[in-house]
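Weekly puzzle thread! Below is a chain. First person to post its structure in token form gets bragging rights.
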Amino acid sequence: MSSRRMTTIAGSLVAASFSTVMILSFTASADDQGPGSSKGGKAVDEAPAGVKLTTLLPSKISVDNGSQKTAITATVKNEGTKDSGKIQLLVVGFDGLTVKSVQGCSQIAESNLPKGSNSGFSCPIDNLAAGKSKSYAVDATYDLKKAGKICLPVTSGDGKKTYWQQGPVPFGTTNPSPNAPATPLLLGTDNTPVAPGGDQKELPKTGVGRDVLPLGAAGAALITAGAAGLWWTSRRPARHLRG
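Winning reply:
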């Protein structure tokens, strides 16, 4: 075989390999949200014997700086040895993070949302077998001029018990990039808001720690409501949720 022909073949192989790498790299970056994490989660009410429910959120997400849109994968797992029976996964947004839709789930009425939240969806699950998980595609928006949190409670089918609750846990960055096409956010990181034009802007403060009180109170309210059996799916008037 002539040296010219060998050179041509080698060049074609290199070009093909380069194209493959480019395609694979693009595909990975488009869907890569990092490994799932249960950061910010804890058990609340005791689950049925042999059932161990947890949730997972991506370790990182990316927010489009133009549209403010982002995609999040919410996963519920049964790490126990017995089937769960009927349960519900709730997906709730706070402050800068607004949940727009969750595939296969129903929107929670505004009157049934916990104080401090701006949006939420309920995902009924007839049964989650031992060792199995179920994931949901969450479409959301994130106003990068604010902090943003998400909460994933897992309740009994009737909403009277909360077996697990992840959050409200923040997504955020301490290094805003307003001039880039997208801003990467990390789970468990408080967001450093950025004003238009790239100037960092702190959250308004009118008292000691006032900017963190609403989210902390909301988290406590979620757990209290779950323990008392007064979850939003019960469709009771909002005043009953405060009891």
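Puzzle host: Confirmed. Bonus trivia for everyone else. The first helix runs from residue 3 to 31.
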